Model the fold of this input.
Amino acid sequence: MEAEFLLRSSCGCTKGIEKNLLFDSELRALCVFVVKFSRLSAIGYLLFSLALVLGAPVLLADDQVAVTVQRPWMRAVPDVMDTTAVYMVLVNTSSTPAELVGGSTSIADSVAPMITTKQGEGTKQTLGMQSVDSLKIPAHGTLILEPDGNHLMVMGLKEHPKEGTQVDFTIKLEPGNHEIHFKIPVSRRPLK
Amino acid sequence: MSSVTQKSTLVSSAPPKRPFFDWRVWTVAGVLLVAVVLSIFLGLKQHAQQGFFGMRLFPLKAAYDFKLTGPNGAEVRLDQFRGKTVLFLFGFTHCANVCPTSLTNLADVYQALTPEERKQVQVVFISVDPDRDKPQTLAQYVTSFDPSFVGLTAPKPTMDQTVLSYGASYEMVAGPTNEPNDYSVNHSAYTYLVNPSGKLELLYGNEKLAEVQRMVSDIRAVLHEPRS
Done:
């Protein structure tokens, strides 16, 4: 909400212009960036530009949903695997609850939200994963996708994501059937 | 004269009445108190240093000597690793989240050891999915995390016996399509540490494996234990 306010007031973006910008998240991010540049302290600026360098895009939706992607990474997996997982933190800065409903990438057949399930106790406890329709991002809250926890599973790998490279990636959000496109770094370990 | 002297001696040898706030008494008491507190504190610290990060089993019992299939199809038994510290866990290669996380963490732990220590440590990944994880595939999978890692599997009856012996569990879960190969496996995610004497000594829940330094100090402690 705050970012949206800044965008409108400082860039002079009217509702109409914002509509046109809606499908151009790059320009949108740039616009916010310019605003942030002028407003934020040096440390804030450094952190924000670091976030941009890491490829974290910003989405501002016309129905007041604003979700930011932070620290996204795709796990580099052995060549014999035909699946991998994607992790990130989704921050909902709006007062509207949002949902992560899926994603896509050119290197795989499909992407699905998954939860990690636990059954039983002690050594008998089994961990499993279960496909879900969506993962909730509460209003003014975050959704954490992390190793051993919730994640986006990437299935049917057509080419293997190599450590140190970047892969195009899209996540789909509701409400509003929004998509965020970004380059995701490939790593064996969580990015610091 | 002498009697007077004796009398005065008697008087002076009687305990003098000390004031309540005699500084000497309080100094001694204070020093004693500091010493007691310090020794308790140091004792606790030493106790904490000796404690293990993993869940320690007591009394230690011989680990079940599993007999599984190795990378080239030959039988591999746990007892073949006697003299080494073995860390093993159950999983399957189609596991996209938990297994790669655990194996990456174990690779970090292994690499944090000295080259000399590494010679005495073996990480073993046991696939509970023998239908899809052929020995060759499994070998490629585990060695991509660390070239020293060994992947083992076995036909279902042998696997079930192994899993049961370690109080573990697994279950196949059908996937969204009806394809026979579309299934996931819910499985125990504990890592078992078998000491160089072949005794099952420590257990780690999967979330503990990320604590590389604490894992390393446990392994070092086990490597330096007197052999029974």
User: Anything to note?
Assistant: Helices of chain A lie at 2-10, 15-21, 25-39, 42-53. Residues 25-39 of chain A form the longest helix (15 residues).
